[in-house]
Amino acid sequence: MEAAQSSPMKVDPNFANLVESITHLNLTSCFQCRKCTNGCPVTFAMDIYPDQVIRLAILGQKEQILNSSTIWVCSACETCTTRCPNEVDIAATMDALKEIAVKEGVQIPEPKTYAFHRAFLEDVKKRGRMFEGSLMQSYLLKSGEFYKKILNGTIKEEIALGWSMFKKGRLPLLPKGIKAKKEIKEILKK
Ligand code: SF4
Ligand code: SF4
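^ Those are the sequences you sent over. The predicted structure of the assembly is below.
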């Protein structure tokens, strides 16, 4: 019997340059100490770890990175960025990778997380800050969860949760504006 041939690894030699051109970082300054990964609170849900993302980007493993759940699971908490001794801003790198994945039409492995990202950014673009009331509605509609919850009856639980948050003063009825709304819009446009 013939040995199974594994498909050759695709390498994109320009991938690290592309990421660096968006983030203005030097990825090769990473010396793989793993301080980023050891501090990341969501590695349990990642398929590749933050330090591996950097190494794979340097090695031109574009497809593996763009198809990973890691870039969507990342919550942008910036713990990794703060811990890195070489000033590799991994949180910004994850954002850049999301941006590239969307531009290149990659099928997002975490559609609900992507729906949340879109709902969050649209909300911030509109008001300069997030408003919980509209964010949750927008997320439920974009992710398709709203219809699912209506069909299976769990929408009642969402309403009960919203009501209990409202009673505790955690869900304001009206959004609060901010002074630098225009500037935030400009930043997001860039
Ligand atoms: S903490 Fe910084 S230097 Fe260490 S592995 Fe992570 S990115 Fe690389
Ligand atoms: S920014 Fe993302 S990768 Fe970095 S520690 Fe937070 S969740 Fe993990």
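Confidence is low (pLDDT under 50) at residues 1-6. The CA atoms of residues 148 and 154 lie 8 Å apart.

Shout if you want it in another format.
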